[in-house]
Design brief:
Helices cover 39% and strands 0% of the residues. By secondary structure, it is mostly helical. The protein has one domain: Cytochrome c-like domain (Cytochrome Bc1 Complex, Chain D, domain 2, Orthogonal Bundle), CATH 1.10.760.10. Helix 1 crosses helix 4. The protein is globular and about 35 Å long.
């Protein structure tokens, strides 16, 4: 993932609305986790139990771990909510999961 060239403003859909899917694409998540979340260089997100745990998912996005870079300095809290929510909606399974909120991101940032 090339975070040096990632621009949070590039996480927009063609109509200009910012979406989790557009953020996923713009910061290069698919390069490691795959377009369909099936993994590759990075672990699969599709069906991963880790994405069902909001705290774990937010910590990974914000702080990185292992080979995953941190995106806490690249993304705003609002963008993190959009990205994490989209990942969970897309690949979290059939059971409904609680919404991820700005308060969750603040807590994950240690605030």
């Amino acid at each position: 993932m090339a975070t040096e060239n990632a621009s949070p403003s590039s996480g927009n859909s063609p109509d200009g609305e910012q979406t989790g899917a557009a953020i996923y694409a713009s910061i290069g998540c698919a390069g490691c986790h795959g377009d369909a979340g099936g993994g590759g260089r990075g672990p699969a997100l599709n069906g991963s139990l880790g994405i069902r745990d909001a705290g774990h998912l937010l910590n990974q996005i914000i702080n990185g771990s292992g080979g995953m870079p941190a995106f806490g300095d690249v993304l705003t809290d609002e963008q993190i909510v959009l990205l994490a929510s989209w990942i969970r909606d897309e690949w979290g399974g059939r059971l409904p999961l609680p919404d991820i909120t700005l308060e969750d991101v603040t807590a994950a940032r240690g605030g």
